[in-house]
Amino acid sequence: RRDVLVLTPWLAPIVWEGTFNRDILNAQYMQKNLVTGVVTFAVKKYWFFVEGFMSSANKYFLAGHQVNFYLFTDNPEQISHLHMAPENHLFVIPVQNYSLWQDISMSRMDIISRYIRSQFQYEVDYLYSIDIDVQLFEHIGVEIIDTLVGTISSWQYKARRESKLYERRTESQAAIPKGEGDFYYTASFFGGSVAEVYKLTRACFKGVMEDRENGIEARWHDESHLNKYLLYHKPTRLLSPEYCWDEEL
Amino acid sequence: YLSASPLLKMFVCCHRLAFGNGNVHYLPYYLPCPEIFSMKLQYTEEKLIQLFPQLFYQQPRVLAPKRQDVLTVTPWLAPIIWEGTFNSEILDSAYRPLNLTIGVTAFAIGKYTKFVGRFLESAEKHFMKGYRVNYYIFTDNPKAIPDVQLQPGRRFVIVPIKKYASWQEISMRRMEAINKHIAERSHQEVDYLFCLDIDMVFYNAWGPETLGDIVAAIHPGYFSVPRSHFPYERRRSSAAYIPDGEGDFYYGGAVFGGLVKKVYEFTKTCHMTILTDKANGIMAAWQEESHLNRHFLSHKPSKVLSPEYLWDDRKPKPPEIHLIRFSTVDKNYKEIRD
């Protein structure tokens, strides 16, 4: 790939189709006997997406490797019986719903960090948070596995730094000063080692709580806090917008 | 701590015998196992995510790669380091606060002691500036090593070793010597270790962009040729054998390194394969370089240095090489190798 940036200035690879050989990566992954987890939320009307997400993820996400899917929902009864591949597991975890979707979005950070601490750290090595309204059309494999992984948002990858969707108000914990910023990362798909995801979600939730106490809410909610975190804790690997393309574009 | 077993352990080395028709048979061959191979080393925690402090720099552009003329990421997603692919300021801002110590091993045996002065002087100007550095000079003639003035935070240690009969043997025994030294000493003193040839000079900056778990460098003679032309060991009876149709890059034996525990592991493996060949009465085409290439084919490096980091001054500089950082000293091979 000569048309795109495949390495960040801090030497993290940016994963695009054509830059990697999945067979080599699979061999390396299998040697280490790793288990990867996926966290996703289906709250209120989002239960509608569960079937589509689970069937496509089951088929295309790290196919052939053990994946633990952790599905948080306020409506466990609505989840129809889902057929899982033999190596995958599905855990349905009930959560309470919130009146505002922004609250759901931001409490994700808190829920993920709490569950990592109490449960996930013992069950998986790597953990990814993926929005439920995402459908996989192509295989997503072990090329995504690294210590701290962010996905470049498809909306912003062409834009200049100034027009990015960063939070700019200094009162918010998610504020990124003018003149700073690498990429705009989407909150629909991020992850890494269980330890790093724990730190990230804790830091983001802390930012959310502080903002709430100060009566301010970040422009793009948990995504703004994610971007702040990943600016100063740079990802060790980036996924290109191919990994999270917004159909509306 | 070092936990050394009091007993000399024997390990079984299964070497392969080759017959005329290419069939391989295995025969157990018992070799005395040096004590150090059974030592358990305690390693400090790997530093993973560093905090990158606030910095102002040009925005990276997704659609504007800095280098379009060369491969900058391997198929297993390890970075290939070329000028333009990295921002030294960003990397320094993350690595300097970690208070790392970088080790360098170099072998100055026999007449090669005459290269030490220039190597060290140039390293003082260009190698890991601003970091703590320990130079470990392995030599059979400590008196011949000149006294070189070092910057603060940088130390120089002479490691006496014995001189072997042939230059090939000297070259191949490096793996054993480095491995032994890590076990006995350097694992406690450095975080990262680079193993470099002494008959070389630094001309430009060599910085934290080179730090990684397992680091190899592309040989300057073979970065633009197909793998069928790589001088891999092609005889099946050697433990360094690489069949036709296989191979990623041809790595140079003059530069390799990584986290000290990783260097310990792969120097151990390479030394074992070298011993296997010895037991079989064969010597690989390019000595330990062949064994290194065999190892890095099955255990891929996490970072690859472009030939900027391992250049040969006798070669004309092609357009892809923007900066020569580390290169050979012109020498008369007949005169140097006894």
From TrEMBL, chain A:
GO terms classed as biological process: carbohydrate metabolic process
Topology of the protein relative to the lipid bilayer: Single-pass type II membrane protein
Domain of life from the UniProt record: Eukaryota
Residues holding UDP-N-acetyl-alpha-D-galactosamine: F41, A42, V43, Y46, D131, I132, D133
Localization (cell): Membrane
Family note: Belongs to the glycosyltransferase 6 family.
Name of the protein in question: BGAT1 transferase
Organism in which the protein naturally occurs: Bucorvus abyssinicus (Northern ground-hornbill)
Top-level taxonomy: Eukaryota, Metazoa, Chordata, Craniata, Vertebrata
UniProtKB/TrEMBL annotation, chain B:
Name of the gene: Gbgt1
Cofactor note: Binds 1 Mn(2+) ion per subunit.
Name of the molecule in the record: GBGT1 acetylgalactosaminyltransferase
InterPro entries to which the protein is assigned, alphabetical: Glyco_trans_6 (IPR005076), Nucleotide-diphossugar_trans (IPR029044)
Active site feature: E289 (nucleophile)
Membrane topology value: Single-pass type II membrane protein
Family: Belongs to the glycosyltransferase 6 family.
Native species: Bucorvus abyssinicus (Northern ground-hornbill)
Major location (coarse): membrane
Residues annotated to bind UDP-N-acetyl-alpha-D-galactosamine: F107, A108, I109, Y112, D197, I198, D199
Residues annotated to bind Mn(2+): D197, D199
